Amino acid sequence: MTSMLLTPDMHATHNSDTHSHDMYSSDTHSSAARDSAPHVQIDPAILYFGTPVVLVSSRNADGSANLAPMSSAWWLGRSCMLGFGARSATPANIQRTGQCVLNLPSAHEASLVNRLVRTTASDPVPPHKLAMGYEHEADKFARAGATAVPSVHVDVPRVAECPVQLEAELEAVHPMAVRDPLRRGGLVALELRIVAVHVAPHIRMAGHAHRVEPDAWRPLIMSFQRLYGLSDVPVESELARIPEEAYRRGAAGAVVASPSAS
């Protein structure tokens, strides 16, 4: 992950229905104007269209704790896929120990992420990272100013400051770009099984033991190297009309595919 900036409007709020209506109306007009222009083909160097930032904690070979920011992550049910450069220390740690913790920062923890950018546990620093200004850091938790707390099911510390902490175990390793001779061997995807979920009390939904309040949880999002927080006004979602419990395995009439799949 390269240098990231926190946008100044990330905490912007919209408190009135009138304001919201005006905002959606404005968006409709601007969207119509955008849609009238033909698409153009481009060749961007990266394809980071917006995913949550994850601080991945793992164990180094010497037993010390490692902490690395990344954003190539997505979830399906209780499984998670993480994408890494194959030569990085974090995937090597996870493959060796079979364990890690996925610490999800909110916009308020952006400073922890930024302190870790362009640091690596690898020593010596790989040439491609050295060219981007990376430096070796043996104590990533101290560098970030993060507080390590013990996990329950894995021998890897969690980050106390992150509102969401997911203990995970390795399920499978998937080499990427195997048919691309230029990128083959350079990327790896790790499939993880989430074995425990810890959340800060303020993002737990009132009246529910096992649900997160979406209006309280503001994940830190990375889009093309910049960091963003979510605004307080969600876009209307028809999908949200389906009860979350309908996706729980074993529930009557449970949906087995992902919420967005069809």
Write the topology of this structure.
Layout: H1 17-35, E1 51-52, E2 54-59, E3 65-70, E4 73-76, E5 79-85, H2 89-97, E6 99-104, H3 110-116, E7 119-120, H4 127-130, E8 135-136, H5 140-144, E9 148-149, E10 158-159, E11 164-175, E12 187-199, E13 221-223, E14 226-228
Parallel strand pairs: 7-8
Antiparallel strand pairs: 1-13, 2-3, 2-6, 4-5, 5-12, 6-11, 9-10, 11-12, 13-14
Would you kindly provide a written description of the structure presented here, covering whatever features stand out?
It is a single chain. This protein is α+β, with helices and mostly antiparallel strands. It has a domain at 1-10 and 54-188 and 200-228: Roll (Pnp Oxidase, Chain A), CATH 2.30.110.10. The chain has 5 helices and 14 strands. It is globular, with a radius of gyration of 20 Å. Residues 2-20 and 254-260 have low confidence and may be disordered.
What order do the SSEs take from the amino end to the carboxyl end, as H and E? HEEEEEHEHEHEHEEEEEE
Oligomer: single chain
Low-pLDDT windows of residues: 2-20, 254-260
Give the N-terminus to C-terminus distance in angstroms: 32 Å
The portion of residues assigned to helices is 10-25%
Please state the structural category.
alpha+beta
Going by CATH, the architecture of the domain at 1-10 and 54-188 and 200-228 would be Roll
Main CATH class of the domain at 1-10 and 54-188 and 200-228: Mainly Beta
The spatial strand order of the largest sheet comes to: 3-2-6-11-12-5-4
> Can you count the beta strands?
14
Shape: globular
Largest sheet: 7 strands, antiparallel
Say which CATH homologous superfamily of the domain at 1-10 and 54-188 and 200-228 is assigned.
Electron Transport, Fmn-binding Protein, Chain A
Instruction: Name the average pLDDT.
Output: 84
Number of helices: 5
The CATH topology of the domain at 1-10 and 54-188 and 200-228 is Pnp Oxidase, Chain A
Fraction of residues in β-strands:
25-35%
Report the radius of gyration as a whole number of Å.
20 Å
